[in-house]
Amino acid sequence: MEEVIATCSKALELAGEGKIDDALQILDELYESLEDELEKSFVLEKKAGILSMSGKVEESLSLYEDVISTQLKAVDEDIPMAVEMLSTSFYNLGSILTDIGAFKEAELAYERSLDFLERIGGEENYAADVGGTLYHLGFLAQERGDNELARNRYEKALRIFETIKSDAEVHTVMCANILNNLGVIEARSGELERAEEFFRQASGRYVEVDSLESLFYAATTLGSLGMIRRELGKMDDARDAYSDALEIAQKLLDKSGDDELYKAVAMRLINELEEMKNAL
Question: Which domain holds residue 6?
């Protein structure tokens, strides 16, 4: 299995570089060389992910049907690794379904992923995976308007990531996203003081990560913080939030370089933030 994983990793790396055909060829050759059905399902799952990346979603979803069928059979036969593999397959399927707007099906896939994680120790053995799955389930609950369930899932995910105490940027961004989404929920529920605190914490987490995406979210979250403080009548604090947001938006513009998308986004942000600040 180690050689299979290594070869699949090479294919995924090529796909990440845009060499989709080369990646698929490697996976097809590997698949044909294997006899073990579970190993073949592992390869097919990676192929499905690459097909989705390249826009071939229908073909990807069709492969996932075969992958999950094979892995479920292996679980019934008590084959080692099958449960963990199945949890990963359902998680990745949930991501694809979310991307195409099939939120109901995505939520079911994430719930199945979480169920299989619980079979192999859950939070005790796979804390980050459980936390990430709960985050996505929270987002999907929020999208369909179930704020109470979304809040519950987000808070569980946040507790897990804060318990891990990891310096990994992906975990920092995840915590920031959770805090930001909790802020949105509280703002829409009229709990402005709670929303203010969540936006304040979220913006602080975003600035810990030095990336264009995080700078963008830091600036927009600080903009949200400014609006909430304005609603609360905290005009000086609102002005401070807008000033901090403008500083970060300018940093985003300076760091954009040849990235025309982020450059345009930063310029639009600066204009909007200046208008909001001047309106105080």
Answer: 1-101
